[in-house]
Amino acid sequence: MMQVNRLDSGGLIERSQPLNFSFNGRPYVGYAGDTLASALLANDVLLVGRSFKLHRPRGIVAAGAEEPNAIMQVGRGAATLPNLRATQVELYEGLEAWSTKGWPGLRIDFAALNDTFGRVFSAGFYYKTFLRPRLLWPAYEWFIRRSAGFGTAPTQPDPDRYEHVNAHCDVLVVGGGPSGLAAALAAGRAGARVILADENPAYGGSLLGSRERIDGQRAGNWIRAAVGELSTLDDVTLLSRATVFGYHDHNFLTISERCERTPGIATGNVRERLWRVRAREVVLAQGAFERPLAFCNNDRPGVMLASAVSTYLRQYAVSPGHRAVVFTNNDSAYQTALDLKRAGCGVTIIDSRRRGAADLRMRTDEDDIPVLTRHLVTDVTGRFGVTSVSVAQWSGDASQTVTSNIHIDCDLVVMSGGWSPAVHLHSQAGGRNTWNTDLQCFVPAETAQANRSAGAANGKLSLRDCLADGHAAGSAAAERCGFAPAADQAPAAENQHENPPEPLWRVPADEDPDRCPKQFVDFQNDTSVADIRLAAREGYRNVEHVKRYTALGFGTDQGKLGNINGMAVLAECLEVPVEEVGTTTFRPAYTPVTFGVCAGDGVRDLFDPVRKTPLHEWHEAQNAPFEVVGQWHRPWYFPQDGEDLQGAVARECRATRRSVGIMDASTLGKIDVKGPDAVEFLERMYTHNIAKMRVGRCAYGILLGEDGMLLDDGVMARLGEQHFYLTTTTGGAARVLSWHEKWLQTEWPNLEVYLTSVTDHFSTIAVAGPNGRRLLQKVGCDIDLGADAFPFMHVRDAVLGGLPVQLFRVSFSGELAFEISIDSCLALGIWEALIDAGKEFDVTPYGTETMHVLRAEKGFVIVGQETDGSVTPFDLRMNWLLGKDKDFIGKRSLERPDCRRPDRKQLVGLLSEDNETVLPEGTQLIEHARITKPMPMLGHVTSSYMSACLGHPIALALVSGGHERVGATIFASLSDRDAVPVRIVSPVFYDPNNERQRD
Amino acid sequence: MSKYSAFSLIRNALSHNRNWSEAWRSPDPQREYDVLIVGGGGHGLATAYYLAKEHGISRVAVLEKGWIGGGNTGRNTTIVRSNYLWTEASLLYEKSLKLWEGLSQDLNYNVMFSQRGVYNLGHTLQDMRDINRRVSANRLNGIDAEVVTPEQIKKAIPCINISPNVRYPILGASLQRRAGVARHDAVAWGFARAADRLGVDIIEQCEVTGIRRNGDHVTGVETSRGSIDARKIGVVVAGNASVLADMAGLRLPIESHPLQAYVSEPLKPVLDTVVMSNAVHGYISQSDKGELVIGAGIDAYNGYGQRGSFTTIEHAMQAIIELFPIFSRVRMLRMWGGTVDVCPDACPILSKTPVAGLYLNCGWGTGGFKATPGSGWVFAHTIARDEPHELNAPFSLERFTTGALIDEHGAAAVAH
Amino acid sequence: MLLIECPWCGERAESEFVYGGEAGIVRPADPAALSDEEWADYLFMRKNPRGAHRELWNHAAGCRRWFGVERDTVSYAIARSFRLQHG
After folding, report:
1. Is A556 in Cβ contact with B334 (below 8 Å)?
2. Helix (H) and strand (E) counts for chain B?
3. What is the pLDDT of residues B222-232, one digit of tens each?
4. Does the beta carbon of C84 lie under 8 angstroms from any beta carbon of chain A?
5. pTM above 0.80, yes or no
6. Taking CB atoms and an 8 Å limit, are A741 and C76 in contact across chains?
7. A99 near A48, Cβ under 8 Å?
């Protein structure tokens, strides 16, 4: 396959390195240094896509981030990437790309019918139709959705990795063109810590391949010298292929760096890196975007931006055509005309201005390029490639129609509607923009953060000004960071006089703008001049309304190509100046970034840390399934011989109640409280009377929010006069510590109390069951464990099996129980000693499910299961826990009328009247069996289990007025047809007199 | 006023779309109205529409400081559902959902309400208890809801990851099939057009700077376009409720927070429904254009800046990749933020106030969009009759005094 | 991501901190003496200003100290951080 459009010489490509690639399945060859776009153009592939709505044939328009048409699917399988712009994809060996619109293909696309009826599919048409019959809307929508999207998401997980890097610097320079390089040099020489980031593979920006001279040397040599010097400076970090896509608050910027050069091929390596940069000062030097001109059929393949054509000629030695018409309203396109001429193309310049270019004009004359001033290109012919243009003479009055009586055959239309500085990051940072009448563009005005714009991004369009502006910005930024400017001069280039651009937002045509063939403003979304005029006519006059109604700027180029033209067309309709229309809000991302790089390595195993107890591996060895509780993994049950959950839990419950069970309770939160004011502090935080607790006593304690609702619960032990040990729920540990700390520090800083989380330091093993005491004695305990010496709800220091432990006589099962608290390093040893010694008692390890059943049999609540943030202590019959003679957090709220309502939802037990239905947890309770909707609900089942020990199902529930309704029969709605009778009973099903736990 | 239909589209196409009339007028404010609605978002415009349509009150002006629909109406992730936990909330949202179902026809404006279902995923045993509880309650309230298994989820959403070997495996979900998404901007425009047709004045670029009162009764407002008299004023300014309330000397139990969202580039259809997850904390759907529309969590700090912190976006990305590992190589096109008014119980305030003639509609937190028509409907009733409808009676300002909160945090931590 | 100065540790990224809401809300000395309205005002009502805001932050992933910050809720610019008054 011949690269027919490749010039014989020139460019920055490696001709010695041919690369094979394919597009839509056809093989082609390009060179190292090509982009996919330049390689396609070299191979004379002009048709690369279809537009979103009208499915018009489209070619490459641009050479960078503003490309709207060449939207590609690159790579296949798990490595495929949707929606890459061909202009920003570096060519690599084996690259496979596909166009993303058009069925059955690019050349024949049935949906191009939309174009035929384009006037029906005007802006906002879908709001006006598909209304009737209503039942057909899903079918209409099915069709709409079928035509959605460009590329396709991969169908397999991403094989590559991503990472995040945090960085700090004095000066971040965004953009490595002439201004950015000058800025980085100035700041770097001054000694500042600099990061220079550029989205392209090579630094130089607009200088790449240019013939300009800087400081007397060729631009290419100057770039090499500049980058060389920067790379020798220790405090300068150079990032190429790195797009600064977000400027966030407090000078925090995000950069996406492409580490792998083969985006469509998976390597398993770090493919992209997110730099999270906190910069003291930022220099924004991203350059400017050239604007298209809005003439009829300006979207034909072969209509391109002038700067893009120059880029293809200079950087890639590709001539996208052979007979070009250059249509411009400013001087810069004359350079492109010269570039084309030198590449051997025929060129005609059509300039809308009365005077043509200033300096360049003379040179074009020498080069014998015909120039038609005060003329317009009004229309383009050629479906899959340009064949000719219509040209008309113009009076200069944009409101009049013209007569196109000149026709020029050509295969390339080069357009330049002037330049718009890339104010994106400046605006993201909160900066304002003002309209510059001379340049006909928005330029950065006041900044909102520590940043400054330089060069073309600052409205400085000549090379000489760019270099000076960049140098000044770099020096000033470094100086703001405290570095004295280096005694260097700004790099110098020849001054070029230019005639100013003249506004030409909508090119007059032979018919008025509503009748003439479409003049596109936003290419990707098919937004035309007529669409914007229609929006304004219909009252969508705010620029944000126009954007949303016409989809202007909603494409993947985010309006880089067309927004300013669109706003100017709107201004014309509204008869106001462009600055009064204003811009839409600039939002990150500057160019699209992968979800993967934003997520970084915080996925899969590192999504959220898993917390494991010191006994975790022992549980794993028993094949215990785990339950996720907060960040913890807790053993759920310990299946034996193929048991299921039910079987294992029944066995574990029976064994515990009959003999002894042990459980890993290490996940409970633990807080050590010390200090002279510990008692006073806890009195205020917890509801019960702290002062009355003797040293060595344990108590059940609850925490309320200031709204009176139950927040957390746990056991409190008084270890000394002013020394307490608190436990919290597994999921609540961090919350409770923070809660205590906040009150202590912000409300009562005069209290001297020290809070220490000891959750991880100590592990807790619960030993429950009538043989618990014997088991501990067998392991070997140095204290008297008898009920008199060590009564229920007490704590003792002890040596158990030769190891120092703290023993708590507390019970969450209703059985005689001890909780062993031990240094986490020693936990496995004591656990195994208990298992060994327990053989004669058939000691049974149990998991969270059995723990739940045992506590439910006793009517003990679990915060977060029986409670949901709307449950008071009264609702749980915990009035006895509320200290009467003191204030505590939440107490006042309990006096509010709603907390005293007798029909509040209150904790009760439920028994299925059939004695066998295990009510699903969450089941709603109702008064009557007959269901009518909507149906008042009495409450819901919070916990429900088959109790192996009692031989029937039990449930806990919150029921309206439940405390007064014990004995009543209500109904549980198993579905919306079926309800079963249940009896309200006491929530304490087992050992109601609490004899066993005191044993 | 052109009536919208396929026929009108074709007829207008033949005349080069030059004869479409304005969707709404842009009148100058009059001296006096019967009712002023402060805030031209979806809720405010809906209120004006239903005041005119249901209560015959058409001397109404909607005062918008910027452009209509420019606040949270145009910044949300467009999810519409009614499967809330508590009866008070679910009946209000169900009223709204019923209105959504005929809204395009009622307004003669296609708001593209797409009932493609919403899955609320459960990742822990407690999540599943909460899901059962909510589904059971929804069904008794006549709201469609069902519990589905991971296998059923996988069948409906082939690109989701139901592997048990992930940090938060999917154990099941609730599914509301009648739930879905809508085209957010169209809701504002549709209500504006329909209200305008009934005589309501929609006045953009008109910022309210003061609320005038005579004793305990409101008498009008000061605006950037002069003072306007009215005996009834409805304040519907999501994100700025505290600021407006302050003008009337009221304190609110509200804090305004940034809430962020982002969209991907347009993709071919890959996700036909809406997926929400509390534990992993993300929610996602795919728009008719093909963009994945993804909501992030709320930013913790108070903020009116309509932007939040990038770390919040990172977390939302991680959550989405956990649920949908295939989206890792998809690219974010745009991120943005809105300002949400959050009440302590995650429920709105739709209420009369201690100031006679002043009515408040605020505090929708992250869940306002779905309520747009229902909110407008009950608020119009409240203003017209000077008493709440039974659907919004529980959402009074007094509940913060009596303690009768409707705490939706419990089962809907991500209450979008 | 905000840059917040902890009065004890210096400037750190927002991700190290936990937000604590409006500063200067003093718990009433005698809650029982308050009417329901007064109690609700303390419990729920917030200034929530658009502009300067005095708020609490906790250096949760650092020294765990609570401190005050004056921040603009529109621009997010931080005027200063301050230690809470100790009695």
Report:
1. no
2. 11, 19
3. 999 999 999 99
4. yes
5. yes
6. no
7. yes
